[in-house]
Amino acid sequence: MTVDTHPAEAAVEDLDLFSDEILADTQPTHDRLRELAPVVHLAGTGVWAVTRYEGVRDALADPAHFSSTRVAFNPKMNEILRGTSLATDPPDHQKLRTALTENLSPRAVRGMKAGIDEKAETLVSGFVGAGPFNGATDLARAFPVSIVMDLIGVQGSVRDKLLGWGEAAFNMQGPLNQRALDSFPIAGELFDWTHNHIRAEDLAEGSIGRAVFAAADRGDIPHESCGLIIHQYIAAGMDTTITSLGNALVQLGRNPEAFERIREDPSLIPSAFAEVQRISPPIPMLARGVVGDVEIGGVTIPDGAQAALLIGAGNHDPRHYDEPDVFDPARNPVDHLAFGHGMHACAGQGLAKLEVHGILGALARNVRRIEIGQISRKLNNITRPFDLIELSLHG
Questions:
Q1: pTM greater than the 0.85 cutoff
Q2: DSSP string spanning 285-350?
């Protein structure tokens, strides 16, 4: 990123990226903005949208100019998130990130594979030939929630609240629209529990939640960071995987030839999931605060601006991907932006891959045909989950 002494005129649009219409069907708007310009100033909200693959990727790798201290689209939530690894820049970021990822390393999650695959096999096989069901709730939601709760070690009545807490926390990262305002009391319960009440003994022995407190006891992190890290596990560990799994079900249901290729060659499963993330990112844009005047594509984004990095637009950029709107399970787009890029790349992506790979593997082994009916989104300011995915699995 460089400062531009001869800035070009910025493209300007007057639209709200958080309107019901755009949240229900985001990709057409992202595509239009990307083809309009590499940077678009959304005058009504004051947001500067970075729209093309190269610009988005470069911004994600440049915390000096695109700061994560403004990782939400409203100042109240940015203040709440202060001190978390999600909302921290270097040099403080690395220690918090290490504590967050210690129990999500490739070696750590590999040890979970057999158990996750077994759970996936049991869940999927129970639906085969059983008639229509709601894949959004009964599969895409139920599977990650059970795994993450056990992983963190959450016990008792709190388990019934976690999903609602996580959804509300994401809503609060958008602007202070009605969705965010309605979510504050719900997410407030999560913040209160993780920041003021949670203790090591509240979490199951051997869980990664307990391991966070152990790290504090060793002096690796401050004790006051324990609740912040548990909060991040809860808020980020379920909703994005739920959405990703729902997206996988929809893509395979709509593309039977792609599912047949996976059935014939299960080694395509990692590539197929990468393609799901590319074509349907669970979080289609990320917020950053601009530090210093920054030039992208000849346009200067001013110091202090709020940037929206359009992941969905970048992942469909024809300048980077051939036929970007085609779902190709063999494409293997390992450089997609759905997991982020750089130091803030998704800390839990290894676990998410294990979970979705487990379900896709169970589908490939047990299902001959996926029949898909109606689908509908559950509107959220940040994620794109489903309320309904009508599915029938035929053996």
A1: yes
A2: EEEEEE-S-EEETTEEEPTTPEEEEEHHHHHT-TTTSSSTTS--TT---TT-STT--GGGS-TTHH
> 312 and 27 in contact (C-beta within 8 Å)?
yes
Q: Judge whether residue 130 has pLDDT over 80.
A: yes
3-class DSSP state for residue 86?
helix
State how far the Cα of 16 lies from the Cα of 177, in Å rounded to an integer: 11
Pairwise pLDDT comparison (263 vs 237), residue with the higher score:
263
Which pair of tokens denotes residue 311? 């992941």
Q: Per the structure block, which two tokens stand in for 328?
A: 């190709």
- Whether residue 91 is preceded by a cis peptide bond, meaning omega within 30 degrees of 0, is yes
- The first and second tokens of residue 276, run together, are 């799901």
CA distance linking residue 241 with residue 126, whole number of Å = 21
The predicted pLDDT at position 1 comes to: 45
DSSP category for residue 52: S
- Please list, in sequence order, all residues whose beta carbon lies within 8 angstroms of the beta carbon of residue 219, skipping any fewer than 6 positions away: none
Q: For the chain, report the end-to-end CA distance as a whole number of angstroms.
A: 53
Over range 194-199, report the average pLDDT: 86
Instruction: Determine the Cα–Cα distance for residues 251 and 253; give it in Å rounded to an integer.
Output: 5
Over residues 346-371, the mean pLDDT reads 94
Model confidence pLDDT, tens digit, residues 44-62: 899 999 999 999 999 999 9
The answer, yes or no, to whether residue 88 has pLDDT greater than 90, is no
Q: Is 5 exposed, middle or buried (0-12, 13-18, 19+ CB in 10 A)?
A: exposed
- Does 386 have pLDDT greater than 80? yes
What are 76's two structure tokens? 């109240």
Query: Which ranges of 70-193 would DSSP assign to H, the alpha helix?
Result: 75-81, 93-101, 106-110, 113-127, 135, 142-152, 162-171, 178-192
CA distance 357 to 337: 19
**Residue-wise DSSP of 217-238:** HHTSS-TTHHHHHHHHHHHHHS
Classify strands 39-42 and 47-50 as parallel, antiparallel or unpaired: antiparallel
Q: What pLDDT, in 10s, does the model give residues 289-318? A: 999 999 999 999 999 999 999 999 999 999
